[in-house]
Amino acid sequence: MSEAEQPVFSIEKIYVKDLSLEVPNAPQIFLEREQPAVEIGLQSEASGLGDGVFEVVLTVTVTARQGEKTVFLVEASQAGIFQIRNVPDGELEPVMAIACPNILFPYVRETVSDTVNRAGFQPVLLAPVNFETIYRQRMEQQAQQQSGEIPIQ
Fold first, then answer.
1. CA-CA 20 to 30 A from 92: which of 6, 18, 47, 85?
2. pLDDT of residue 114
3. Got the DSSP string for 101-123?
């Protein structure tokens, strides 16, 4: 392979694209002593920006509840602009679904923790995520749907 054909992967920019915090039951919620139940949602999406340049956005939603009351809700979208060139078509999607979210995750983890802490709560520490496993599960689900199989749970 010549130098012009060598795969290129570089980070052009990492930034917070969107950040939202809601504490709908403040200030009364701060008087509660019960530990809230925390739910975490994760979503990743990629889009092309031009010749070999892509934006990948990793969105984390953290909802804390005490019974029916929402203690807090944080949604953080961490984005990155990546230059990805000379990668075979079959390998481009895994790079954007695995490698890019792996790079973005520590940033969004810090953003969520800091936001929750600044809202007056104990920081939420997100556990590590295996984006390769998530990607493979999604590919298996798509293959089952296309073949008409019903997944056994």
1. 18
2. 97
3. HHHHHHHHHHHHHHHHHHTTSPP
